[in-house]
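Lab manual, section 2.4: Encoding a predicted structure.

Procedure: take the sequence of the chain (120 residues), apply the prediction step described in section 2.3, and record the output as structure tokens. A sample record is shown.
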Amino acid sequence: ERVDRTPYLLKLAGGDKNPFDDWIIPVFFGALVGGFSSGMIFGRVKLETTKGPRISNRTRWLVSFLGGVLFLYGARMARGCTSGQALTGGATLSAGSWVVMFAIFGGAYAVAYFVRKLWL
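Recorded output:
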């Protein structure tokens, strides 16, 4: 009922539409199962946390989670994937996409100074 009143969700799953009737669903699960199967067959499936020597696993996971939340918020604000916008728009020489690309790289460079001690 709430979906039918929300214009953004209406086009995805409103009325009698099933959100799982989309081409991306079998692609997603196929990639997930295929990647896991390949890892199992070749013995590459293992749980590990890649991090620098000075931080704990808990800090690494917390920083990764916070970074993901920030990128998710940016993608939601931009109404799409920010890196995809920069790459595909940059390839078509869209001025706005170039601004986004430089903003992403500039922001990453500025934050790298503060985050570097987590890796060194």
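Check your result against the sample. The chain has a mean pLDDT of 86.
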